[in-house]
Design brief:
The chain is an alpha+beta fold. It is built from 12 helices and 7 strands.
Length: about 400
């Protein structure tokens, strides 16, 4: 099914590319594009079959994300983030899933995972309040997944939860005006004190242990994968896609270029440009090979019902952040050798450079943190982190 979605998406790419500049300038993905991606099945790729989903191989999902991101990274980012949330929602209690997908299986869910919300236990659930930033594509979603800390009797945090909140219980504030990924409309979500029933929360600790109440109704191996692997890959995939698109634009635009200085001559004859292309292409290939390898190994273990070793989980995070790092370095190399024309706004090389850098600052792409975790594990030290 993943290949069918990819073929449907490929037919949409020329139109998405034409809207890329408008998406960037308007600071949001057009509703028409979202509807086309819905119809193509992009947002159902990781959704449970019992709710009309496809339960695709994650590798196929990220391939679709990269294809979209190659022509418009903002659109690819929103497709990736909104597209990965059905996977997490599948881990929630069945009642929560029914509330979201019971009437409309195309309902979308956004997120803001930073634990800035405050949860106070009350009868039957919790009282939630807070303000969250960076909720990509939230204007297209009917629900939101929000990070929050449970506050005990002494006013101290006692647990870390992800909370599912309907659109009627929060407001969106338009604050998104940034350098890159401008079209993601990653605005703020504000929740005044509202009641959240217990079935709409999931403990981050249990999720890190590869557990969730939703596994009772969604027993497929897809839902026994680590959150850290699935979600962080959804953050890196658009960056890789943007750089791959920037690479293609570089090749296309530079083929006919003639230097007006430095001795003139055709750009394609410049050995420095040739080396830059080779380095960028190699880094992109290495990134894809490592990430796909890790995801396939994770999926194979889950399908066999075997325990997923911490060494593989750490390696997956290592290669995911290095994938982002390599992609950004490749984009920098291309941007540097493309010359002054690449500075012009609207140039696809310029936009890919901005978007790749913007995506790289997401907490999931914190290179040093992830590499330090891998190093601790390699030394046999305990690693305690929800993003493993």
């Amino acid at each position: 099914m993943g290949n069918e979605v990819l073929e449907s998406v490929r037919a949409l790419l020329p139109a998405i590319a034409e809207r890329a500049q408008t998406t960037d300038e308007s600071r949001q993905v057009p509703e028409k594009t979202i509807r086309e991606l819905v119809d193509a099945g992009v947002f159902r790729m990781l959704q449970p079959r019992r709710y009309g989903g496809l339960e695709c191989d994650p590798v196929d999902f990220y391939e679709v994300v990269r294809a979209i991101s190659a022509v418009c990274c903002s659109t690819g980012w929103v497709a990736s983030v909104l597209g990965v949330h059905p996977w997490q929602l599948a881990l929630f209690d069945r009642q929560a899933q029914d509330e979201v997908w019971g009437e409309d299986q195309d309902t979308l869910v956004s997120s803001a995972y930073a634990p800035v919300g405050r949860l106070t236990p009350v009868d039957g659930g919790y009282r939630l309040s807070g303000r969250w930033s960076f909720s990509s594509g939230c204007g297209h979603a009917g629900w939101a997944l929000l990070g929050a800390l449970v506050v005990g009797a002494q006013g101290r945090p006692v647990d870390f939860m992800t909370v599912l909140v309907p659109r009627c219980d929060y407001r969106i504030e338009d604050v998104w005006d940034v350098v890159g990924l401008r079209g993601t409309a990653s605005n703020d979500i504000v929740v005044e004190p509202v009641f959240v029933p217990a079935h709409r929360v999931i403990r981050n600790y249990e999720q890190a242990q590869l557990k969730g109440p939703g596994q009772k109704v969604n027993p497929g191996p897809l839902y026994r994968l680590p959150f850290a692997a699935v979600f962080t890959s959804a953050i890196t995939a658009p960056v890789i896609g943007a750089v791959a698109g920037g690479y293609d634009s570089y090749i296309s635009l530079m083929k006919e270029r003639v230097r007006l200085s430095l001795g003139g001559g055709k750009f394609v004859e410049d050995p420095f440009a040739q080396v830059a292309i080779a380095r960028a292409a190699s880094d992109l290939d290495a990134t894809l090979l490592q990430m796909d390898r890790n995801l396939r190994e994770l999926s194979a273990l889950a399908a066999e019902g075997r325990e997923i070793p911490v060494e593989l989980r750490l390696r997956t995070r290592r290669d995911q952040v290095r994938g982002t790092e390599r992609a950004v370095a490749a984009m920098d190399l291309l941007f540097k050798t493309a010359g002054g024309n690449s500075l012009r706004r609207g140039n696809p090389i310029e936009r890919a450079w901005r978007d790749a850098h913007a995506g790289s600052v997401h907490v999931a792409n914190d290179v040093e943190r992830a590499l330090a975790m891998y190093g601790r594990g390699a030394f046999g030290l305990t690693v305690e982190d929800n993003l493993v």
